[in-house]
């Protein structure tokens, strides 16, 4: 508790109460904007409640039980627009969505088969499953958001040929013999499930024996720690805009890093983070390697949709909720 608010009480995984920190003495000046500028404290207490379902969050907002709700469904946007007593905010590019292949063990170690899956999938059709187009954007480029200086749009198209006939030919070339493909997804975030059900019909259409297994996120993480347990899984990332937060752990965190030796990994680490003259070229090559090996399928980014009562003001222009910018009439 060294900021404008500190933790007063909590019930684990259910609710938290924050209280104004009387001894806060931040000397930051200037217009308040996320983590920059002044941090005024308008609210004496804030109660944060964890509500798992977006529909329940919306119902609580409409009933007046909540002053502010985060992460609503894109399908709720028209209702928010029609309700004069509510305000809303669309924070673009809150999360990036992609699917990982297990390239360490099992049938998806076959690069041609991974490429077949990628060729079968219409990424825009998958992203359309997120709903209102104002709340999502297509981005096939691995890791980096379109706002990053390292985003190079000309890289992706030549690696993403699309079509079921092409995908079927690649399946045949791969020698795939009908082995089960266990595809793990979760409903804890809508996007984890949206990706999976968006991909499933195309994968079945090219003759893959796919079993979609839906579990909670904790179970998914636990199960997929062992490469023997899975072939594909849905995942997500916060948008990466700069090299300093680039996680180039490769195809699977607990597998070999990109199947590189320690010496190769050390080389990339040195170039990316210590050799500024070569960094831009290295990042471009790193993305090309990721596209060539088809270790993951990247789809795009979704916005965070927030709703709030009409008497709530100062919602932060940030993906993170900095409550010191907010007040209530």
Overall description:
The protein has helices at residues 54-62, 77-82, 111-120, 123-128, 164-174, 190-205, 217-223, 262-274, 276-293, and strands at 5-11, 15-20, 45-49, 68-72, 86-101, 136-138, 181-185, 210-214, 232-237, 296-309, 312-313, 327-328. Helix 3 (111-120) runs antiparallel to helix 5 and helix 8 (262-274) packs across helix 9 (276-293). The chain is an alpha+beta fold. 29% of the residues lie in helices and 23% in strands. The chain is globular, with a radius of gyration of 22 Å. Strands 4, 5, 6, 7, 8, 9 and 10 form a seven-stranded mixed sheet that branches. A three-stranded antiparallel sheet has the order 1-2-3, with no helix packed on it. Strands 11-12 form a two-stranded antiparallel sheet. The chain has nine helices and twelve strands. The model is unreliable at 248-255 (pLDDT under 50). Strand 1 (5-11) and strand 2 (15-20) form a beta hairpin.
Could you describe the largest sheet, including whether it forms a barrel? 7 strands, mixed
Helix content: 25-40%
Oligomer, anyone?
Answer: single chain
Structural Rg: 22 Å
Which segments are poorly predicted (pLDDT under 50) over 5 or more consecutive residues?
248-255
Shape: globular
**What amount of the residues lies in strands?**
15-25%
Number of strands: 12
The number of helices is 9
Order of helices and strands: EEEHEHEHHEHEHEHEHHEEE
């Amino acid at each position: 508790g060294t900021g404008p608010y500190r933790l007063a009480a909590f019930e684990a995984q259910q609710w938290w109460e924050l209280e104004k920190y009387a001894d806060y003495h931040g000397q930051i000046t200037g217009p308040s904007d996320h983590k920059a500028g002044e941090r005024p404290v308008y609210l004496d207490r804030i109660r944060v409640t964890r509500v798992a379902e977006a529909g329940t969050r919306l119902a609580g907002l409409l009933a007046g039980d909540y002053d502010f709700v985060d992460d609503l469904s894109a399908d709720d946007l028209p209702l928010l627009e029609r309700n004069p007593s509510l305000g809303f905010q669309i924070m673009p590019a809150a999360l990036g969505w992609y699917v990982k292949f297990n390239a360490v063990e099992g049938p998806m170690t076959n690069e041609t088969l991974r490429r077949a899956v990628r060729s079968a999938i219409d990424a825009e059709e998958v992203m359309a499953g997120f709903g209102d187009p104002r709340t999502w954007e297509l981005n096939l480029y691995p890791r980096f958001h379109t706002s990053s200086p390292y985003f190079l749009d000309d890289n992706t198209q030549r690696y993403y040929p699309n079509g079921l006939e092409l995908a079927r030919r690649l399946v045949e070339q791969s020698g795939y013999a009908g082995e089960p493909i266990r595809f793990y997804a979760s409903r804890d975030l809508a996007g984890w499930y949206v990706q999976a059900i968006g991909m499933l019909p195309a994968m079945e259409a090219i003759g893959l024996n796919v079993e979609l297994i839906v579990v909670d996120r904790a179970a998914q993480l636990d199960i997929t720690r062992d490469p023997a347990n899975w072939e594909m899984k849905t995942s997500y990332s916060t948008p990466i805009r700069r090299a300093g937060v680039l996680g180039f752990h490769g195809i699977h965190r607990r597998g070999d890093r990109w199947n590189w030796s320690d010496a190769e990994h050390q080389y990339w680490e040195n170039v990316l983070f210590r050799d500024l003259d070569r960094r831009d070229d290295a990042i471009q090559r790193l993305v090309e390697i990721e596209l060539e090996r088809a270790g993951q399928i990247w789809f795009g980014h979704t916005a965070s949709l927030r709703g709030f009562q009409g008497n709530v003001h100062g919602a932060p222009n940030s993906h993170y909720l900095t409550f010191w910018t907010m007040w209530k009439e």
